[in-house]
């Protein structure tokens, strides 16, 4: 049996290693800054009982304020925005109030995927950042009082 000296590399193996070392490192996507106020400007929600609500017709909107962003993670707060003349939407057995709902968020490694998780509930949303000030979102809550919906969120301030 012939012994091979591991410290001696053949010319083809050496050429591959040199090429790999010289190859440029793939650039990581820059993490976008999402801080500011985002308003749901369009979309529709379907509730467990078959009823639906449409953003800006049935109630004005929701706002999500993104704050304390550190690299790809952040805190957020969702607040319903009601117009006195609009029919208020509801969640479970109650109408949506004027409370603030704390959320956590993360930006995907691709720099365009954004996920929001409700701190006090089981709801979540996944969004696609289509430009620096617009996200297309799909949200859901599973269980006995399931809710699904889609919306367009537009940043109104940074």
Word description of this protein:
The protein is mainly beta and 158 residues long. It has a single domain (36-157), classed as Beta Barrel (Lipocalin). It is 8% helix and 49% strand. It is built from 1 helix and 11 strands. The strands form 2 sheets. The chain has an 8-stranded antiparallel barrel. A two-stranded antiparallel ribbon has the order 5-6. β8 and β9 (124-131) form a beta hairpin. Residues 13-26 have low confidence and may be disordered.
Give the SSE layout.
Blueprint: H1 11-22, E1 36-47, E2 52-54, E3 61-70, E4 73-81, E5 90-91, E6 94-95, E7 101-107, E8 113-118, E9 124-131, E10 134-141, E11 147-157
Antiparallel strand pairs: 1-2, 1-3, 1-11, 3-4, 4-7, 5-6, 7-8, 8-9, 9-10, 10-11
Distance between the termini: 71 Å
Second-tier CATH architecture:
Beta Barrel
Number of strands: 11
| Average predicted confidence as pLDDT | 77
Secondary structure: helix percent: under 10%
Structural class: mainly beta
- Could you list the spans in which at least 5 consecutive residues all have pLDDT below 50? 13-26
Radius of gyration: 24 Å
| Secondary structure tally, helices | 1
Strand order of the largest sheet: 1-3-4-7-8-9-10-11
Order of helices and strands: HEEEEEEEEEEE
| Morphology call | globular
Instruction: Classify the oligomer.
Output: single chain
The CATH homology group name: Calycin beta-barrel core domain
CATH fold description:
Lipocalin
């Amino acid at each position: 049996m012939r012994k091979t000296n591991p410290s001696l590399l053949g010319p083809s193996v050496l050429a591959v290693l040199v090429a790999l070392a010289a190859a440029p490192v793939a650039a990581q996507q820059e993490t976008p800054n999402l801080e500011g106020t985002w308003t749901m400007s369009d979309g529709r929600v379907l509730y467990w009982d078959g009823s639906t609500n449409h953003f800006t017709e049935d109630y004005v909107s929701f706002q999500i304020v993104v704050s304390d962003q550190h690299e790809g993670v952040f805190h957020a707060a969702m607040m319903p925005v009601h117009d006195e003349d609009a029919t208020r939407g509801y969640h479970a057995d109650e109408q949506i109030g004027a409370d603030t709902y704390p959320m956590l968020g993360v930006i995907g490694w691709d720099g365009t995927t954004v996920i929001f998780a409700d701190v006090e509930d089981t709801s979540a949303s996944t969004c696609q950042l289509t430009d620096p000030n617009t996200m297309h979102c799909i949200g859901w809550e599973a269980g006995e009082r399931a809710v699904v919906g889609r919306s367009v969120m537009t940043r109104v301030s940074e």
